[in-house]
Amino acid sequence: MNFNITNSPLNEIKADLELVIVIDKNLKHPTVKDRKLLKKANFSGAQNEVCHLVEKNRLYVGADNLKGAAIRPAVASAIRSLIGKKSYKHIKVATYVSHPRCSASIRAMAEGFVLGAYTFTEYKSQKSKCPVKTVEISLEGYEPHEISMETAARAVHNGEIVASATNYTRNIVNTPPDDFYPESMEKKAKKLAKELGLGCKVLDIKALEKEKMNALLAVGRASRHEPKVIHLSYKPKNPKKVISLVGKGLTYDSGGLSLKPGDYMVTMKADKSGASAVIGMMKAIAELGLDIEVHGFLGMVENMIGGDAYKPDDVLKAKNGKTIEVRNTDAEGRLVLADVLCYAQQEVKADYLFDFATLTGACVVGVGHYTSGVMGHCEELKNMVRQQAKIAGEMVTPLDFNDYLKKTLKSDIADICNISNTRYGGAITAGLFLSEFIDEDHKEKWAHVDIAGPAFVEHVWGENPSGASGAGVRMMVRLMESLSRDNTH
Ligand code: BES
Ligand code: ZN
Ligand code: ZN
């Protein structure tokens, strides 16, 4: 999709279709030229409501207000409605800003176009794609504004980068497990590293054994695909901060010997969403050329069954020497992350350490399908994640640790158990388990984000398609953009 920004007024631009955003149900605004027809079509202008007036070549969509959080899903919903309609290649739209000098809504609009146009048609014989090739953005405003051509162009460019990286993540997550396994991520990472000049180190079984990552190795033992840990690095000169990102990359989670029931196993190709988000973040950060050093660690493993499988009752020794009693092989993500978190801390002394994982069904039960849970020992850091997520159009809520839940992970025969002895608070106990693998130096710098809910949802929601959403990418790129600008954090 190409974006052109122009000073020409909308009515002088030739296009197949004009997109009009109706703000706050205000059908009386001068930009709404087809009020009578819209009323006839029962269009109220509610958020994400779409009305295509075919004969007028106008596509209307409602947004509650002019802020990015409303514009992004509105534009995505509008563009999504064109999927499969071949004749709309070239569309035009005015400029919408929430404040005369703020370009955030312009960026949100570009994100909405790219996110909404996403389709995953790889496995379809009849491919129904988004026809739009060019979007012409006129600087003619919904309201008067002072945004220059350069500012608008930068906002659009940055929006395109972040949204394309999100789509890149979506593609990985949506790919079926027989076609995407740890080695596939190795190939992807090497290709990306070559294209963007990133460092890329891959640990194979031998290297993982040498690094004593026995918990991760146990999880991967029954798979025909060898596990891999991948370290991608982006190192600009004089970076303002150093950040490590760790991702759970279970290319399939059958549950292992504690086998998942059939219904629960479906969609477990998406258990690689954490690692897939991290590689998407690396892509965006490098393309944006941010002034921070960023390391991405991907723990790629397949959790399967077989004669060689790890078992409930096994005791594993993690990289940091702690012993873990396995009581459920389906609580495998935390075992993989335990070792990768230790490895990340050994390799890089970071100012911030974040991990992303589809870690628990309990997180989905607790906060619903659309929200991630953020955990850690630093309130300020958790708030920062939440705030930046909100700006980026993602929802994250803090789930606070407490010492009572911590005690539920005690084991009789090892240092810790991989599941808690209570049925409740499963997202928090998983976070507390991970905390056992964070050094004292990193305790206040670490946040864990459980993306089990939003990473993969089997229906359209806001700017997200059915299937993989790319959860985590937009919020973290925003957060890292703020660290790259700011010296105070
Ligand atoms: N990958 C799952 C968590 C999950 C569930 C992600 C649903 C997305 C949607 C994880 O490995 C898992 O199976 N967790 C168990 C933990 C339990 C055994 C303590 C769970 O949540 O049931
Ligand atoms: Zn599991
Ligand atoms: Zn899992």
How do the strands of the widest beta sheet line up side by side? 7-8-10-9-13-17-14-15
Classify the beta-strand content into a percent band.
Answer: 15-25%
CATH class label of the largest domain:
Alpha Beta
Unreliable stretches:
none
Output the number of helix runs.
Answer: 15
Number of strands: 19
How confident is the prediction overall: mean pLDDT? 97
Q: Roughly how many Å apart are the termini?
A: 36 Å
Question: Share of helix among residues?
Answer: 25-40%
Q: Which CATH architecture of the largest domain?
A: 3-Layer(aba) Sandwich
Structural write-up:
- This protein is of the alpha/beta class and 489 residues long.
- The chain folds into two domains: 2-142, Leucine Aminopeptidase, subunit E, domain 1; 166-484, Zn peptidases (Aminopeptidase, 3-Layer(aba) Sandwich), CATH 3.40.630.10.
- Helix content is 35%, strand content 21%.
- It contains 15 helices and 19 strands.
- The chain has an eight-stranded mixed β-sheet with strand order 7-8-10-9-13-17-14-15, with helices on both faces.
- α3 (104-116) links the parallel β5 (90-95) and β6.
- α3 runs parallel beside α4 and α9 runs parallel beside α15.
- The mean pLDDT is 97.
- Ligand BES binds at residues 253, 271, 328, 330-333, 358-362, 364, 419, 426, 452.
- Residues 253, 271, 328, 330-333, 358-362, 364, 419, 426, 452 line the site of ligand BES.
